[in-house]
Amino acid sequence: MRSAIVVGAGTSGAIVARRLVDAGVVVTLIEAGGYDTNPAIHDPSRAGELWHSAEDWDFFTVPQEHSAGRRLHLPRGKVTGGSHALNAMIWVRGAASDYDGWERDGATGWGWSEVEPVFDAIENDLLPVTDDYPLSPVQASIIDAAVQEGLLRNANYNGGTLDGVSQEQVTMRDGRRVNTWMAYAQPVADRLTIVTGREVHSVIVEEGRARGVRFEDGDELRADEVILSAGALGSPVILLRSGIGPADELTALGIAVVQDSPQVGKNLHDHLLSPVIFTTQRPVGPPQPGVSATQTHLFWRSRAGLTEPDTQPLHFSVPMWGELEPRGDDGFTLMAGLVTPHSRGSLTLSGPGVADLPLIDLAALADDRDLAALAASVRQCRRIGARPALAEEWGASEVYPGPEVADSDVEEWVRRTAITYHHQVGTCRMGTDPGAVVDPQLRVRGIEGLRVIDASVMPTVPTGNTNAPAAMIAERGARFLLEE
């Protein structure tokens, strides 16, 4: 009987495991973290508690030259459910042109006509995707203020047009988080072999074929197929430790080269956010159980001539102070967002062991076009917060960047405050060119029996949150494997 190892029980891995076991494959699902027993995972109002927790890999970048030399925190889920156990559950398909662009650039078979039916199937099958929930009063006013600013109210941003302000579509049911682990893998746990709390060091490759995985303690587990679904940071790390990557980098670390694949860990990119924070005279109140701190967002084009929006601010019902000094007890945040980054970074190993943390360089804001777009989004958020629906009805007053920062100086604010939008992609890029890490069927080039199925294979990041595209990739990747 055919057997497979799936590494990572996050958005992609949980789906792959379910589809394979349903087809009669003997599946071992490996998760470096533990089970999702932390109550904060299940209550959307408590998501902020999960950063720096036991369920967070708690990655940091190297100092970012173009972002005031800061090391940016990159929360990633180390738990069943993966980052879908930590995130805001926002469901965005992206733009049709995103996927047509993938296909045009060599990801054959990944155009919109091929992926749209997969999104349809996911949303009508196991995973609840809904915007049928009451808006918090301040969130309703944020929508009104955005309309006063001149944006259209978009009732369904997943309906073909992103532009406008919308209520977020999320994966929730009855005020509780629902992720792909809960919807896909957990219901068939008795048909899976699930290994938790063990980190995979590398893939065992013998005579050009993947034969299993090796754990951090040297133990081995073997199967006919190996699928890496450890995410845009985890999957390339495992490939590199396996000797699959840039030969010169591997040799320098004393790692035997199994397959010279120069692009493993390259093409790293991410969406970015920058906060605009307001205090209010009318109380917003603390987060309520079962209610996410973010319920609305908008898509907007920062300049003329763009074919799709390049910004996506998120709106939070709390002041997101982060590392800023609090300037009040109550308020809200319009988190300016960049979703079409031009900057490209890389991920490399610092050593051959699991204790050697990866060197993650987003090259955040290295491209001036990214800085210009995110700064324009900040300026827009400032204008929205000053509209009557917020300034008059709530007594909203901007405290960050604050009146001391002129619009002409916003770029410096962005460099000092930009943070991740949690959407790293691209480090195991798929394509048909010789440099692609995986082919369009997600097979690792040069190694039989090994696939990467997660956000790392995206050639370019879609316009919007990456959870839905990662789920779509998982459904298609599992199908490719079963059809082979």
From TrEMBL:
Its cofactor is FAD. PROSITE patterns: GMC_OXRED_2. FAD binds at T11, S12, V79, V200. This is Choline dehydrogenase. It comes from Microbacterium natoriense. GO terms for molecular function: choline dehydrogenase activity; flavin adenine dinucleotide binding. SUPFAM superfamilies: FAD-linked reductases, C-terminal domain, FAD/NAD(P)-binding domain. The keyword Flavoprotein applies. Its EC number is 1.1.99.1. Belongs to the GMC oxidoreductase family. The keyword Ribonucleoprotein does not apply. Pfam families: GMC_oxred_C (PF05199), GMC_oxred_N (PF00732). InterPro entries: FAD/NAD-bd_sf, GMC_OxRdtase, GMC_OxRdtase_N, GMC_OxRtase_C. PANTHER family: CHOLINE DEHYDROGENASE, MITOCHONDRIAL, GLUCOSE-METHANOL-CHOLINE GMC OXIDOREDUCTASE. Keywords: FAD, Flavoprotein, Oxidoreductase. Residues 231-245 form the Glucose-methanol-choline oxidoreductase N-terminal domain. Substrate binds at Y421.
